Amino acid sequence: MSRTDVPRTIIRNCRLVSPGVDEIGAAIVIDGKHIADVVTNGAKIPGAENNFDASGLIAMPGFLDRHTHGAGGYDTTDADPAGIEVIAKRKLMEGVTSFLPTTLTLPEPGLAAAMENVARFSRRNSTGAKIPGVHL
């Protein structure tokens, strides 16, 4: 077990694309929720409790969408509080791990309601892309 008491996971045989890196046959070592190491093709890969063969797949960092009005049929400024959760889940499906919900030009009460929906989601978000801030 890893030091975080979460089983170690190895993603093997992936094409790893990251700034300055394009490596076929790489492995990614994950301890808990964090990448502990990247192993290039041909190097010794450590043991792990969980192994995932990513042959034919590409691993790359998640994207940051810094200007998005919505997704999944919802807009950031919709009155429906469930909309932000739908947007966050849809963004994650697109490879976006963080996004800035972007508002429309609205009177102050509409903007305040949108910010409350974003804040409520951010306080309880356990699934979906993260929201580090808003584009107002």
Brief descriptors of the model:
single chain, 136 residues, alpha/beta, five-stranded mixed β-sheet, two-stranded parallel ribbon, 2 helices, 9 strands, 21% helix, elongated
3D structure, described in words:
The chain is of the alpha/beta class. Helix content is 21%, strand content 36%. The strands form three sheets. Strands 1, 2, 3, 4 and 5 form a five-stranded mixed β-sheet that branches. Strands 6-9 form a two-stranded parallel ribbon. The longest helix has 17 residues.
Q: Unreliable runs, pLDDT <50, ≥5 residues?
A: none
Count every helix, treating DSSP H or I runs of 4 or more residues as helices.
Answer: 2
The beta-strand count equals 9
CA distance, first residue to last residue: 44 Å
Strand content range: 35-45%
Task: Summarize this entry quickly.
The chain has two helices and nine strands, in the order E-E-E-E-E-E-E-E-H-E-H. It is of the alpha/beta class.
Give a topology summary.
Layout: E1 9-18, E2 21-31, E3 34-39, E4 50-53, E5 58-59, E6 63-68, E7 70-71, E8 74-75, H1 82-93, E9 96-101, H2 108-124
Parallel strand pairs: 1-4, 1-5, 6-9
Antiparallel strand pairs: 1-2, 2-3, 7-8
